[in-house]
Amino acid sequence: VTLRTKLALAFALFAAVPLAAALWPVSRALSRALEAEHGARLDAAARAIEGELARLGDEAALAVADLAQSPEAEALARDHAEAAAAEEGTRAAEWRAARGLDVLAVAEPDGRVVSSGHLPGRAGDVDPELTDLFAAAPPGRAVPRVVSRAGPEGVEPVLALVAWRDVPGGGAPLRIAGGAALARERAARLAALTGGAIAIRGPDGAVLAEAQPPRAEPAPAAPPDRGSAAPRWMGTVLGRLGGVARSIPLGGPGAAAGHIEVSVASEGLARARGTVLFAFLAALAAGTAAAAAAGRALASRITRPVEALQQAAARVAAGDLGARVEVRASGEVADLVSAFNAMTAELAQSRTRLAQAERIAAWREVARRLAHEIKNPLTPIAMSVETLRDALDEGRPDFREIFDEATRAVSDEVRRLKRIVDEFSRFARLPAPERAPVAPEELVSAVLALFPEAPPGVAVAREVEPGLPAVLADRDQILQVLLNLVGNALDAMPAGGTLRVRASRAPGGVSFTVSDTGGGIAPEDLARVFEPYFTTKEGGTGLGLAIAHRIAEEHGGRLEAASEPGHGAAFTLTLPVLVAVPTSPASP
Amino acid sequence: MRACLVALLALPGVAAGGVRPAYGGTIRIGIPAAPGTAVAQGAADLLAARAASAPLLDVDARGNLVPGILAEVPAAEADGRTFRLRVRPGVVDATGRAVGAAEVSERLTALAREGRSPNGWVALPILGADAVLDGRAPLLAGAQVLSPDELVVTLAFALPEFPWLLATLPAALPGAGPFVPAPAGAPQDPLVLRANARHHRGRPFADALELRAVDARGAARQLDQGGLDLVLRPEAMGRRPGPALPPLTAILAAVNAERLGPGAEAVRRALAGIDRADLARRFVRAHAEPLATLVPPAILPGAPPGPARRADAAARPPARVALLADASAADQRALAERIQVKLFDAGVRATLEAVEPARFAERLRRGDYDVALVSVPVAALRPALAAGQIAFAARGPAAGRRAMAELAGLSGNAALEAAGRLARELELFPLVASGLRASLSPALQGFAPRADGGFDPGDLWLLPARGAAR
Questions:
Q1: Which of A196, A584, B148, B242 lies at a CB distance of 3.0 to 4.6 Å from A264, suitable for a disulfide?
Q2: Is the ipTM reported for this complex over the cut 0.85?
Q3: CA angle, corner B259, sides to B254 and B265, nearest 5?
């Protein structure tokens, strides 16, 4: 984590904590107020339900009393003994429809049904529901009871407010029981009345009827409100979580015949609570984000010079001693920047001085080596000239032979001098490579073509991996390197052996390995074989491998040597290719 | 005309009041539902069919067979399966076309072709009825026309009651009755039938019959106000209640045991436990009696002597059953509601599905029900034929034929036992048998229902004062 990030987080934290501390109590207080409002609505809904139930009960009791005193009821009681039972059985259904009652039955005092409007098939049976009603409830007063009635799904229980009355007159003792069923339609009316969801439950808690509040009409052409989506969503969730209901028992507290459960629609309140919470969270988020942004801006002023110093140090480490830090800073950071810039300037001057010293030392070394190389041929030349002069002065008869030998020696040494001069000249003036794609196989073939016949006792092995990509190389310079390596290998096997030239894939390019089975290179010499003027061969200049090493580097490649004394040596030239080459599993 | 003499001697109105029957006028009859145009099944349909067709044989006031279109009541030949039918000479239909043996044969073949229509059972005993029913043969092999006036009917099995089959309304020849349907008017208009002057018993007294559907209150009001002359409904009404027609409409509960599976036993137990006398008394407004077997007690009184149904008390009730009923019959709905309650008391929740008659018949045929209330107006006064008709209506042709064959020639306890066994094996639970009640206006005369519940509309007449007023 960067310093800038740490500082931004610290600022955000310092802003969030006091914001939360201040906003949370406010949000809580608002939520409590809304919940209190919700509770008040529930109380109002419960009162409305109780009022509606009282009205329904009164109406039912009145209707039953009115029916019991009606002429048709008296006629039924009067004719009960003689009337056809089937004709009587239809009366309750007719009266029920005419009187607007949901349940209605005519029964004898023991509960035997004479006629039932809500369950016509019960006629003739003693209905325990009626028996219980007659025993438990006083006449003329509606009480809640679970009543079985015929419905579309068969005989179903329904909670009803039922009242009963004796049929007066001198006829058979008959009673009329009727009332209002608290079924789905009634639940829907209660839902509309209270604006809440209604569940009518039996004494065992089973839902007998339920209804949802009627949906409010959508606001006409309400403009889209981007900000309202989140509160509505949160309000829905909170409303669902906080579903508070009120249960109204029906009947006595100890023996309730059922309950009416109302849960007032709290979507609006929940949405308001959600809005408060949303506003709280939004303010917290906005404050935290602003603090984080401010912290980040402030941190950037502090860390910008440090980051510039870091980048400049990286450039210096990469060799760019001209790197300078050009940012505005103050205080200790400004001193640090000045010190860094002074340090890099001093480093650049030191490098210049060091380079000059190295150049002088190099020239001295060249002069020393050149003098050493030239001095060696000069001695035989001088001796030959002296010997020739002495022979001429002495008039030696074999002067002719001496002359030939002396001049031959002088010529040899002159040629040697010339070769030395050529090699020095070439080492000093090695041209930049002109690289172009060259097939590895062609390079190997070209090198081996220069040795049409292998020296006696030497076997040549050519190994080129198929499908090698072209290497980027100056063909002549690379051929020079490979010729040098092959020449060295042949020189290392005067008694014969095996010369192996191999081209294969290598990490980052293609490698050319020239190996021999000669005596190998001593470990102490192996590290110096690429140094200029180092040689173990008689008459060698020590520049061949140095030049080869330099050519390899100028091609972006490398030349490496490996040897075990007594087991020959191997030189591997690795050159880059046009495109990246995947490493072959068979590659060394 | 022969009608005058016959009516004068036979009709109670004449005997009681000494008033000569008079011709003319329109007799308006109120019935529970409008007559259908397809196959006659309800009371209204049967009345219309009876008015427009002539029975091959008739049933007299004492319940004996008497000639109708046929010149004589046929008797079985020696093999017990062959009957020689002779048509009364000179009979013509309303268009004047002669009615002979070929028409009788054609009628019997048409009944066989009607397949599973309510009337198809009439042709079941005749040889070759299967082939006609299945479409393998165009004609009944057992109906052979010997001459214009004579044909031989060969049965597939011995059935001594066959002449009673010829007295049923389905076997009557349409178009040859005392009345002829007038061209149909608007759907709400009453069905009007005009007098057929070519009727073989002579022109009917009334000029026309008018059949209209009325509810109970409307019927009572119109009867009092003189708007109706005869009301045939479940309830008795008016100042002159007539006789109750014999309770020959059998109502049974058919249990689809295959569909109910293991739950069928609980349903059987609940149905077997229903008090049928209570059912007849409290839930049928028409004249009703408990039904002990497949055969109404008016035909076969008594209860089967066999063992009662065995019920597995531990049987697990099905979760829910569909109780199918015909919506066109008010009493049937009341019965269904009672059964629904009794099933509920037995722990079976039953949903009542009251559907239109055509839909009811289709679902009954396909077995698309758990329990169905089947109402069959029994047309023949013999146990074998009644059981055959009921079994045919509830379970199809094979059951109908089996019922006729098993009860053929039986009477008394033997018939009761066979009918009881058949009911158990066919999963049919007899409930009640009912008959409509007749209510008459003071002006209507000549109403004399026979033992089979039928009456000849041609015998009805109006007192002269009213008749002249129309």
A1: A196
A2: no
A3: 65
